[in-house]
Amino acid sequence: MPELRKDPIIGRWVIIATERAKRPQEFKVSHNSQSPSQDCPFCSGHEEYTPAEISAIREKGAKPNGSGWQVRTVPSIVPLLYSSGELEKRPHGIYDMMNGVGVHEVIVESPRHIASLDELEPSEISQVLEMYRQRILDLEKDIKFKYVLIFKNHGARSGATGSEHSRSQLIALPACPKSVKGELDGAKRYFDYKDRCVYCDMISQEIGDKKRLILDQDGFVAIAPFASRFPFETWILPKNHSADFSKNSDDELYSLAKIFKEVLHKIKITLSDPPYNYMLHIAPYRRPKPGYWSTIDQDYHWHIEIIPRLTQVAGFEWGTGFYINPTPPEEAAKFLREAKDG
Amino acid sequence: MGELRLDPITARWVIISTEKNFGPDNYQVEKLDTEEGICPFCEGKEKMTPPEVDADRAKDSKPDTPGWQTRTVPNKYPALANQAQMNKSGVGMFDMMSGVGDHEVIVETPDHSKQLADLTIEQIKRIIRVYKRRSLALSQDERFKYVLIFKNYGLVAGASLEHSHTQLISLPVVPRRVTEELECFNRYFDYKERCIFCDIVRQEMEYRHREVCENRDFIAFCPFASRSPFEISIVPKKHQAQFMDISEDIIDNFALILKEVLVRVKKTLNNPPYNFIIHTSPVNSAQQEQYHWHVEIMPKLTKIAGFEWGTGFYINNTSPEVASSYLKKVEVQDY
Question: B278 lies in which domain range?
C-alpha cells in the first residue's frame, strides 16, 4: 500500500510508492517507443487489454468492454493510489502521514489511435469534457475524497509513457493538494478584501488590455497569464463566474470544446507540436466541516492551465518556487493569436 | 533587464526577461548538444567572461589571468541586473517590481574534466569559503533580501555549460518557498519552543533508517517526505540560521560530507544530473533565528509531469528508506 507523507516544513504531501520501489538502474533510459496501434490497449477492439471499464460513452446497445464507444474510462494499469480500504491518518515520530487511498483512472479520448486531442472534432472533444463532468460528479459521492484532479501529459518530455494514444488522467485524493490550497487561499484573500472574484477581475482586465488575450469567443477566454511561470503558458477561463466545472451545461461544454481545440492547435503549430501538460483547476468538494469557509462558490473560478514543456526546471526554481520565464506573456500571446496553418 | 511579477492568486513571483524575448524558434524540443569550441571557464580563457569579482589565486597573479583555484564572475546572461533602480509598481490589478539582483557564477576548478564530486577536500573547502565570502559581500547591499546558492549539474538539470560551476543569485524579495518554510519554523517554535529541524536531526539520528552518512558536525539523510527519488538533505547538527555564519572549524566536516554524499550519488545512480541548493535564512530583514540552514540535493531521474506542477503534490517511486539503503551500500574511501 503506498503512503501519503506530509513534508513537515512546507506542508506538502508526497505519495511514496512502497510496493513499486524502484531500484537505481530502473531510471536510466528514456524510452521513446511508440507502440503501434495493433498493440495499443486504448484502441477500439482492444478493450480486453485494459482493466474493466468504469464508464463509457457508447452507442445504444453496445456492450461494456466491447467496441462501439466514443470515450472510455478505465482504471490505471499502474495506479498511484488504491480505492479500497479506509482512510487512516497517523503520526510517525514528529512526522504525519496517511495511507494512499484514492482513485487513478485513465480517460481514453477516442476509439481511433490519435496522438492529440486537437485532432478530434469539437463535438468529440465535447464528449471528452462530458466524461470529465460525469466522473467528477460520480466521485463526489465518496466522502473520502476532497479533490479530483484531471490532467494530461502529452509527449514524452511531459511525463507521458507507453502508447501515444490520446488520453487524460484522473486522480481523486483524500487531501486537497497544496497548490490548490494556495490558489483557494489567494482567491479568498482577494475576495475578502474587494468583495469580487480575482479571476473575474483578471478576465475583464485582459479583455480590456488585449495584450495577453489569445482568444475571446462564446463565453470563454484564452489568455497568457500576467505572471506566466513558463513560456507560452495558457489559461482558458469561462467568462461567467463558476467555481465548479461540473455545473457546465452541454452547450457550455461544446463552446469550451471549440476554444480548447483552437488553443491546442495554435500551440501545436506555433511550437511544432511540443510536449505539454494541462490541468483542470476546480474547487474542491464541499464537505461541510467546522471552520470551512462558505464563500468558495463566489471566490473561486474554475479554469484550465496549459503548460508547454519547453524549458528545464532548474535548481533555482526548485529552491525558491521562483520561476524564470524567458518569454514575456505579451509576446507569447501575440505568437499564439497570429498562429495560422501552413 | 528583467521584471519581477507577482501572481495575484498564489503570491508567486516570476522573473520575466523582457530582453531575451524568446520566440518559438528559440526552443528546441530535444537538445542534446555536447560542448563544442572553447570553454569560457577554463584557465587561459579569463577574457571571455566579464571581469572577476572574486578569485583564489597565486599571490603574484593578476585578476582575469591564469593562476587561480576558484574564480567568481558575473553571469553573462543574468536573470537579474545589479545596476537597476529598485522600482515597485502596479499595472491595473497586477503588481510588479524591477528585476534588481545579482547573478554570479562560481567556477569551482580550472580543470575542465573534473566535477565537484571529483575535487579534493582542500578544493571543496575553498569553494565553500567562496560561497561564504560572496554571501557576506552581497548581503551588504540592503536592497537584497535573499542570497541563493545553487548548482545545476548535467543538461537535464538545467546546466548550460559542462565546466563545473555553482550559481549565486541575490534577490530583492524573499522567495515564496522560503517564506513558507519560515512560517512553518515559526509555527513549530511557537508551539514547542524548539527548532523543527533540530527535532528532525534528532529523530533521524535515533532511527537511522533514512540516514546516508554523518560526521561530528553534519548528518545526511533522505527526507521523510522526499519529493524525488534519492533526494538528500545535509544538515548541520548544531542550530545555525545563516549559512554564511558557518565557522572555519566546521567547514572541514561540511566539505567532507558534501564530497561523500556526491560520490555516493554518483556511484549509486551512475553519475546522474542533479540540482543542489543551499537553503538559508533571509538577509537584511528581521532576525530569523528560528531557521536552520541546510543543503538539498535532488538527482534528476524522473520528469516532472502535469500532476506535480499542477498540484505541488509529488509522486516519488523510491521511498527514502530504500534510497538511503542503496546510498549507504556504496563503498567510499576515507577522504
Answer: 192-329
